[in-house]
Specification:
Blueprint: E1 6-10, E2 17-21, E3 31-32, E4 39-40, H1 49-53, H2 59-67
Antiparallel strand pairs: 1-2, 3-4
């Protein structure tokens, strides 16, 4: 699997975007936003902040999608 390991996160509080590295060994449950200091948490049903607020899902979800043929 060739997972995408960078993503653009968008803060739901201030609306700013920034690039971030995705963890490849675990989901990231908390992310403190540098601009407004909001602490992001995943939305209900998502495994991590990247699945909720980024333009790319986390590597684990990317792998699940690849394995399911989607």
């Amino acid at each position: 699997m060739n997972a995408v390991t960078t993503a653009t996160l968008t803060c739901p509080r201030c609306g700013r975007s920034q690039h971030a590295e995705l963890r490849t060994d675990a989901c990231q449950f908390f992310y403190e936003w540098g601009h407004c200091h909001a602490v992001l948490r995943p939305k209900k049903g998502d495994c991590c902040v990247f699945c909720s607020y980024a333009d790319t899902r986390c590597p684990m979800k990317q792998q699940e999608r690849e394995e399911s043929g989607g």
